[in-house]
Amino acid sequence: MEHIILLLKILMINLVLSGDNAVVIAMASKNLPEKQRSQAIWWGAIGAVGLRCVLTFVAVLLLRIPFIQAAGGLLLLWIAFKLLYDNEDHVGIRAETSIWKAIQVILVADFVMSLDNVLAIAALANGDIAIIVIGIAISIPIVVWGSNIIAIWLHRVPVLVLLGSAILAFTAGEMLLRDSRLGVWLASAGEVLHAGLPGLLAAVVIVVGTYRQLRARHI
């Protein structure tokens, strides 16, 4: 049951954080004939799965270095807040007329834009390679094939973005606690702070996100 919940978290994180990737995929392949468009999307998805797995493995190794995991936690917390204020601007992506060029654009874009996904998955899985591979293999094809649907969902159901941001903030708190150096200091600061930090960060993100959504409705 714990693994199923973890997979659902990874899927949710990928869906929420892959809005940019979905738009890039749609733009890069939109000028291709229908058959080639499907091929470009699927080959891009397969390449993205392999690339994301390699990057996540590297992240898992790096997160074992003292203070690197703490720095990653702070970065993930920043990403959680950034997600609430994302302006969804996408520029500089050219529609390609060759299937191989479209695949190259998809892979390069996924590499450049995957820092948040990779960091979140590495932190959530906490070194469980099987969960990492399964989570990425399930979520990326869903993202690339359903890119338009995902974009509509994220726009029409803002609570999905809020939930994704809360998961990121909670994971950031866990990363801070797991850091081999900072975690010891936080543990010495008190049991309440140590146990409640992830939940506190998630609650702050939910409050900020809810306030922003309510404020947007009244403007």
Automatic annotation (TrEMBL):
It is found in: Membrane. InterPro entries: Integral_membrane_TerC, Integral_membrane_YjbE. It is a multi-pass membrane protein. The chain crosses the membrane at residues 6-28, 40-61, 67-85, 105-123, 129-146, 153-172, 192-211. It comes from Paenibacillus brasilensis. It comes from the Bacteria. It holds the Pfam family TerC. This is YjbE family integral membrane protein. Belongs to the TerC family. Keywords: Membrane, Transmembrane, Transmembrane helix.
